[in-house]
Amino acid sequence: MTYGLRENLEIGLDAPLIAIYNASQSGTPNTSGFGDFDVQMKYRLRKEHDGSKMPAVAVGFYVETPTGNVQKQLGSGIADYWISGILQKHVTTRTVFRLNSGILFSGNTLTGAIGIRSAHGKIFTGASSVTYQLNDRLLVGAEIAGAFTQQFDLGKAQVQSLFGVKYALTKSLGLDFAVTGGKYEGSPWLGGAFGFSFDF
Fold first, then answer.
1. pTM value?
2. Can you tell me the distance from the alpha carbon of 182 to that of 188, in angstroms, rounded to the nearest whole number?
3. Residues 79-112: pLDDT tens digits?
4. Distance of CA 182 to the CA centre of its chain
């Protein structure tokens, strides 16, 4: 859920519901439940203007709280803080290109000797995406994203691609579907997402 406090300022939150199905030979049981709770803020520094080659520019700040169950693989067990920069440019009236990059600061909610031994550090992220408005109801898009760190025991390195579709059922209600896949420990080998979006 996101809400525009002002014309250039947006706040949001999300609480993901996760279901994980593991291969039977892995010895790890399937699990489901709520993951880590996120709070975010985005501020637009510059709008796009007709006739200008300059993109829209925004900055974002995100906090992920360790509310997911770590033993069930639903949460990271640490609080994450993420700062990012975002660029957006209409290539045509129907095609939009976006580019963002940032730094995720991995905190640590553990104390004492356990906390000292826990992995924490900075993760550098980047993504680019393009969306195309096929008609008044159908929007398609693709994205490639990556993250890397010098501390591999953080378990968050990833290279991942996504293809998604949004279909407008009404002016305010949309049907969303996406498939994603990637490599390294921070990415699913194959995943999917299905949901609804509602514009108040």
1. 0.70
2. 6
3. 888 899 999 999 999 999 999 999 888 755 444 3
4. 14
Nearest residue to 20 (alpha-carbon basis) of 195, 191, 199, 200: 191
> What phi and psi values does residue 28 have, to the nearest 5 degrees?
-100, 125
Q: Are β-strands 158-168 and 173-183 bridged in parallel, bridged antiparallel, or unpaired?
A: antiparallel
User: Does 3.30.70 match the CATH number of domain 1-86?
Assistant: no
Tally of CB atoms within 10 A around 147: 20
The gap between the terminal CA atoms of the chain, to the nearest Å, is: 10
> Mind listing the pLDDT tens digit for each residue in 115-155?
334 455 677 889 999 999 999 999 999 999 988 776 655 55
What residue ranges do the domains of the chain occupy? 1-86, 121-200
Task: Tokens for 107, please give them.
Answer: 């905190």
Dig out the tokens for 172 from the structure: 């305010």
Please give the radius of gyration of the chain, using alpha carbons only, rounded to the nearest integer. 19
Tokens of 125: 């992220």
User: Contact 15/28 with Cβ under 8 angstroms?
Assistant: no
C-alpha–C-alpha distance, residues 124 and 103, integer Å: 5
Task: Please classify residue 76 by burial: count the beta carbons closer than 10 Å to its beta carbon, then call 0-12 exposed, 13-18 middle and 19+ buried.
Answer: buried
Identity of the amino acid at 86: I
91 vs 128: CA distance, rounded Å: 14
